[in-house]
Amino acid sequence: MNKKRKTFVSLLLSTMLALSVLAGCGKSNNTEATATPSASPSETTPAAATEKASAEASSLEGKVVFWSMWSNTEPQSKVIDEAVADFKAANPKVDVEVKYNGRDINKLIKPALESGQQIDIFEQDPGAALANLKDHVLKLDDLLAQQSVGSDGKTVKDSILPSLMDWVKSLSVTAGLDEGYYAIPQQPYAVLFFYNKALFEKAGITAVPASWEEFLADCELLKKSGVEPITFDDAYRDLFIGGYLGSAMGSDWTDKLVKDKTGDMWKDPMVLQFAKDIQNLKDKDYFSKKIAGNKYPAGQQDLALGKVAMYLNGTWLPNEISATAGPDFKWGSFQFPIIPNGNDKGGQQGLTFGAQGLLLNKNSKNVPAAFELVKYLVGKKAQEGMAKQAVAIPATVDTEWPAPLAEAAVAFNNAKVNMPWGFGIDNGADFSTGTVIPVFMELATGKIGPDEYVAKMAAEAKKFYAGK
Amino acid sequence: MRMQKSIIALFLLPAVIIYLVIFLYPTLRTLAMSFYDIPSLSSKVAEWKFVGLLNYEDLMHSSYFTGSVKNVLGIWAIGGVLIFAFAFLFAVILTSGVRGKNFWRSLIFLPNTVSAVVLSVVWLQYIFNSSYGLLTTVFNRLGLTALANIQWTDNEHIYFSMIIAFSFGSIGYFMLILNAGIDRIPTDYYEAATLEGASVGTKFFKITLPLLRDVFRTTLVLWTITAFNFFVWSATFGLDDPHTVTPAFYMYQKVFGRGNSVYVEEVFNVGSGASVGILITIAILVVSALINRFFPKDRLEY
């Protein structure tokens, strides 16, 4: 009897132990993943404190949690740390916790918000955030009327590039929210051809190509000067297809093309023209010989090393490969050249552009302090920091753009229509990844000719959508 | 002293509870999820939309998915032959009394201690790279320019490149199991055979292989599970290239999104991912059953 009881008690104890160990695991994981900014506030205290000594700000208190989309190894995090330090100097009673999620935030944010975890500010692509998280976002219209930090006399709203603010506002209606501002845009980006200016000069090219004809002529000059004109990586093959077709016909057309269930749209003359032009690029050796096997980031490294002249990518590219390219690399950029015989829906009025956004949680218990921190994050000093340290386009109106992206301003001025990523060529989901891109590679490596390409795409599209 | 049944049950209880909670419940929930259209992993049950077998039908009709099934069967067959050929070879050599046995064994096992992601980056960017990769450099040195110019990671080669790279890292693991199995075989048999004048080949086919049947069956089941869940290498080698995609990676794409770029908005269907998971589970069960059928279970005593 006694023995039995003993076994029972020990069993109970061991079960409890096991449970507590399991519970312990869960907890420790959470705290481990949370990183508080390491920048010590003492460095910046004196300057910032005198700058901002208003009684209203310093009365803020409580805790603010900010989930960032950057990881703590990226230069953006250093700028954020500095901005947080400035904020803390001005608002010593507020406890700030920054969690650098990296791009995993895209997967973590929704469950975290739904489970009611304390997140006051989070970073997301505004389009994706408003579509997926519309029950969690706070309307910012009233808050945006507050004075900005650093841009004298301007409200927060007026301190930020108007085209970006308009774009963010337009997203609210599509998402089914009341019209207004739900995200503060920052880190604007666009998809452009990036080129090595030194190689262009060596080849004798004086102006960037605007039309397809000029583009081909420049490729010829580059080839003669001994460099490979164009390259791309496996991760960005879609951009090249979408870039051409979207530039010719606009992204609504490419969207319809990849979703066409009959496959007949692939018989459009524009597809044949595209296939012929790609074959031309391949036959004349304008494509790098390595495009077939390039594994990200092999192709962009070739650009950085001066082996290849052009690469179609987002404006984050100069920052991404700055370590290989070095500080003396002269960057230039231009929009996808104008394609002849288009339908006027494309051209240079269409640009794949966007921005990251700072959003506030609707259920935040500390909106005043959270928004105050946001003001520092999109303040002039932080945006200058982003431009200098992370080669990012600043969101504030009169901040100088980083030199590698100076030419990108042209494209932002041209842009009237915002095109989706890949100009819509990725909208076919499994059809895009499973068929559009690999068959394009067969064309670009000379395995099939233009007529075969058209026939194959039409047949494959019909086959793919047959059961749906 | 025999313990009472109730005490045995009591001792088993925690294990059973943990098994039910962390294994059976998720499996059943996944099965249920596979019949719904679910926009996000964290969607509430109220947001699920019942679609019956539609997820499964869509999978059958998607050439991307059926291609991924073919890929994984190829990996299972080709990779299996490669891995077991080398694993047997090394295991036999190591147990034949070679000098420095422990050193060689550790060396062959070493790739297993490196993360699969790291290994695949090494293979992709330093071995298969067409400008300064190992293969290109070596073939150029040897004057074999035709071989040096092969793009190991293009559409034609990437599948086999991936299988070779993966097999390289997996040989050590299976070698270790086979090695232990061979070590268990009493040396008397070999001594007797040697005295009778048997060759190395005869000893392998007449003694080692038959007596290793149990171990081999187990490793084969382990390999099947590994191969059918082939995931990391597919993700790192192909991104979402149809030439390298496997059902497990396809499932990941459906549940967590495609996202090789932050800037793409995704359409999720967690339910579709769940049906892929169910199909993988069924496939593993079926193949394991077949393996047990072909390798009878009578235990060898020696």
Automatic annotation (TrEMBL), chain A:
UniProt keyword Lipoprotein present: yes
Region (Disordered): 31-55
Alphabetized Gene3D superfamilies for the sequence: Periplasmic binding protein-like II
Record-linked PANTHER family: ARABINOSE-BINDING PROTEIN-RELATED (PTHR43649), POLYGALACTURONAN_RHAMNOGALACTURONAN-BINDING PROTEIN YTCQ (PTHR43649:SF33)
Protein name per the record: Extracellular solute-binding protein
Keyword Membrane: yes
InterPro entries: Bact_solute-bd_prot1, SBP
Organism for this UniProt entry: Cohnella silvisoli
Keywords of the record: Cell membrane, Lipoprotein, Membrane, Palmitate, Signal
Automatic annotation (TrEMBL), chain B:
Topology with respect to the bilayer: Multi-pass membrane protein
Transmembrane listed as a keyword: yes
Keyword terms, alphabetized: Cell membrane, Membrane, Transmembrane, Transmembrane helix, Transport
TM region(s), chain numbering: 7-25, 73-95, 107-128, 158-178, 220-239, 274-295
CDD domains according to UniProt: TM_PBP2
Subcellular locations according to the entry: Cell membrane
Keyword 4Fe-4S applies: no
Gene3D superfamilies (alphabetical): MetI-like (1.10.3720.10)
Protein name, as recorded: Sugar ABC transporter permease
Source species: Cohnella silvisoli
Signal peptide (from-to): none
InterPro entries for the chain: MetI-like (IPR000515), MetI-like_sf (IPR035906), UgpAE/MalFG_permease (IPR050809)
Family: Belongs to the binding-protein-dependent transport system permease family.
